[in-house]
Amino acid sequence: MLFVIEDTINGILMGSIYGLAALGLTLIFGVLKVINFAHGSLLMVGMYVAYWAVALTGLHPYVALLIVVPVMFLFGYLLQDIIIKPIFKAEKDVREPITVIIVTTGLWYILDNLSLLVFGPQYRNLQDNPLRGKMLEFGDMMISVPKLWGFCAAVACTAAIHIFLQKTRMGRAVRATSLDRDAASLQGINQYKIYNIAFGIGTAVAGVAGVALVPFYNVFPSVGVLFDIKCFIIVVLGGLGSIGGALLGGMIVGVIESVGPQFMAATWTEAIVYGLFLVFLFLKPSGLFGVKYDW
Amino acid sequence: MNLLELKNVRKHFGGIKAIENFSLNVGEREIVGLIGPNGAGKSTLFNCVAGVFPPTFGDILFQGDRINRQKPWDLCRKGLARTFQIVKPFASRTVLYNVMVGAFAGTDKRAEAERRARAVLEQLNLGHLADQRAGNLTIADRKRLEIAKALATRPRLLLLDEVMAGLRPTEVDEMVAIIKRLREGGMTVFVIEHIMRAIMALSDRVAVLHFGVKIAEGTPQEVAHDERVIKAYLGDEYAAA
Amino acid sequence: MSPSLARKLPLVLAAIVALALPLVLRSPTYLHILILLYLYAYLTTSWNLVGGFAGVLPLGHATFVGIGAYTSTILSLQYGISPWIGMLVGAVLASIVGVIIGLPTFKMRGAYFALATIAFAEGIRVMTENIDTLGPFQINGPRGLQIPPLTTGFASFMFATKEPYYYIILAMLAGVLALTWFISRSKLGYYLVAGGEEPEAAQALGVNVARAKLIAMAMSSFLTAFAGTFWAQFTLYIHPKSVMSLDISFEIAFIALIGGRGSIAGPVLGALLLRPVGDFSRIYFGDTVPGLHLIIFGVVLILVMFFQPRGLQEPLTRIYTRVVDRLAGVREAA
Q1: What predicted TM-score, i.e. pTM, was given to this entire model?
Q2: H-state helical runs in C139-198
Q3: CB contact under 8 A, C187 and B90
């Protein structure tokens, strides 16, 4: 019985990191109304940036956030500005911006294979970082320390984004644009600048997730693919555009992955996650907390 | 027999009562007009009749059959065609292609569909534009294309949603003539319109919608002098031309 | 010479060249490359029925390749059934799966449909990799199935040389192109285009958009499965990563998109342009610069979406018509 509780707690912790990874995706969708198929690749880039930041400077991973977040923000900002914005403009009146989806898919491929080229296929990990392998004893249960840090980062990040959206002027502009881009632009908000910022923030959050993962997860070029699909699943479960939903969705997936193997083979756990995803997709596509988007 | 009957139709969107207790009959070969200020609920009514969404309450009968929950494509097969206020041509294809899509509603063969489509284009003076890309047309031609597409399905009842908007007075007169010719050919027409000049010239009867409620019904002359109607339109820019 | 005849002539010539090529080109390596080229042209043209004409973005089509490959292989290995029959069974199975996927997802926005196809494809692949036996059927998980090259001959869909494979895939390609041409001129074709461009307008004109898309999906998955059986009989070894991977799904979609979805020539042109690029970079840069061809595909895809969202077939067809007209001495209209 204790195992189940331990697994559940670890599942919640890992799940919150998944949620953190998915947070950027849901934010970008909420504002741009575009599903960024390259999100997993952005996460992969974030992990590499975090890895190199720590490996080259010897800093504590979470201190390396000071490097990772601005770099990733800039990366996302430029990506949106240079590559996605032109297509966006061209498709302004089209009912469904499929071309944007196609472009992000192309981006996915470019980023993944470029990093294969530049970094090589080998698995990397930060062997001697201060968090690796540390466990916290809680009675008879072992809680993973790096995952606990990740949990805190996820909660802090979610709270920070929430405050940003609700309390700051820029955040209100972002919300306005996501509700009605034309009305917002009539109010003097430069919608394309907002898109750039939203994409930048989404990518920066992916960077935070990268920092959270790097102490205990291997870094390799195709790590993005695994997370990409997982992030889509989480975001559908939690509801596209919902910040809290991403966190919750992540935790659900985390718990299933953690507790599941106690009762069935690992592959069936994966099958359950996929199955849940498809069930939501078909029955409740707006997810648990999603905004009712016109289907 | 009444081709179209609306009985106590109500349409609510959550808390918003878009249409409240609306009743109207449209007889065969009649041209009935529906007017009202912006936001009165006219397009919503059309959407209910055309099967885009069902009414919350009440009955809609077409040719005697209750059609409340039927889908637009089935209704089209039954002889009910409609145009859209914001025209939706298949922009990347030719005008002929556009109309052929409608023509296929009555036949499976391409040659026959093409024949019918060309006939409709001639009927609406669009024949010379048959091979033009639909996206390149002027707004007036697009409006006529919109009607052509619907006409190609060989409907018995045609719902026209503001086909005159954006047209010059001469173009409006042309359109009125076309619609009248259609009626002579056996068509029944239900028109939403803002342009008074057209409605007065066209309609046998007019119903007036205001905040989802029918406030008047009668001949164009009766309605134009109805006090409630004048009050509803007070200060509006739509002068009776 | 009439303009339409002039434009068709080079195509006829190309067909004759294609038929005669194996007689001239004796090298099995080149034949192999050509066979794969035709295979991808076939796959992208089949994809085009849904991805092009129906206006949605299926990104998991490799599933149907896998279903075709596994069905015919299992039936022939375990029950001795001819792969030709297995091909048909696999195709029927694939189209059923295609309809199951399409039924709930066609009503959704494009992005969700794309997502669902990826999820289905990956889900089925993951399952296949982790299952050894499914009831009486041997699946062998990641190790895959090997077809022992025992009896050769048409009935067993197995040949000692490449030539027969060449002609079979060429025939399949010709067949699927002809089918696409017929459909584009048929009621279904018109309905698919209309439903893809303006679904509400199409519905008002009597088009049951969802049903048209399902029909297209059923056809597309049916035909795609054929390619799976061909692949199995050609390479004699199938495993999940070789017939069901996301890479294959994406390559099919990318090629069709770059070539120009929604047109008949687009997918074939895309394959003609991109496969050699891919092969070239795989052969010469495979060791030093792995995955280079995928980067190139991605970059080309983005560039094409920037400048020619309808694909390269649009400018290429214009150039082709102009050149042919000039050569045939057709006067250009004043």
Answers
A1: 0.87
A2: 163-184, 187-197
A3: no
